[in-house]
Amino acid sequence: xxxxxxxxxxxxxxxxxxxxxxxxxxxxxxxxxxxxxxxxxxxxxxxxxxxxxxxxxxxxxxxxxxxxxxxxxxxxxxxxxxxxxxxxxxxxxxxxxxxxxxxxxxxxxxxxxxxxxxxxxxxxxxxxxxxxxxxxxxxxxxxxxxxxxxxxxxxxxxxxxxxxxxxxxxxxxxxxxxxxxxxxxxxxxxxxxxxxxxxxxxxxxxxxxxxxx
Length: 213
Ligand code: AP5
Ligand code: MG
Known about the structure:
With 213 residues, this protein is an alpha/beta fold. It is 48% helix and 14% strand.
């Protein structure tokens, strides 16, 4: 099963993708997490990606596509995956489709987690992230058991550099210009399903499970 998570920054793609990955035993592949892990390790890729991420801009397609294709070629992706944050542009979606086609394969489902822009900025300011395992918390809605510490791996939690309100606004604009057209793209392929992302995370997940089956 190959699932794509669509939605604005902060819609809950990562939160839901992790729950799907666990329930259906699929790897969770997040390009944002890959970039942040590289940044933490101080790699060239991480440094390059940071220039764009800190501005709320997209990392160029050439760079992103290569990383994603490398990741999904790994053994653990043989039986499918949940993509979170990829594709984010029409050209990225087209490359993915072409590569899958070569293997006689295709994307099965694109899930759009819908949350209005007004809710997003509020969510982002409360988000805390673990840069080691990619877990995400919210200081009010989804707090860690111990304040400031990741439940899974004990690392200190951080606020992402790109979660400042002005950067979030920029990411929203970029989302509407470059990523939202994917809703149409997958609707035309008859694989788009929408869930109401303003519900609490368990209710959103229950809706997703109904779609995935
Ligand atoms: P990326 O890491 O993908 O960021 P994003 O799309 O902006 O999405 P977020 O991770 O911010 O939000 P999310 O939808 O995962 O929400 P979350 O579950 O955390 O990308 C970062 C940057 O990398 C991009 O800006 C770009 O520069 C670059 N990049 C990445 N992929 C790229 C690509 N393909 N091409 C080019 N550039 C790329 O939830 C948000 C918060 O809300 C959390 O605090 C969470 O706990 C809380 N929450 C979640 N669900 C609920 C709920 N139901 N109710 C209440 N709170 C909730
Ligand atoms: Mg995310």
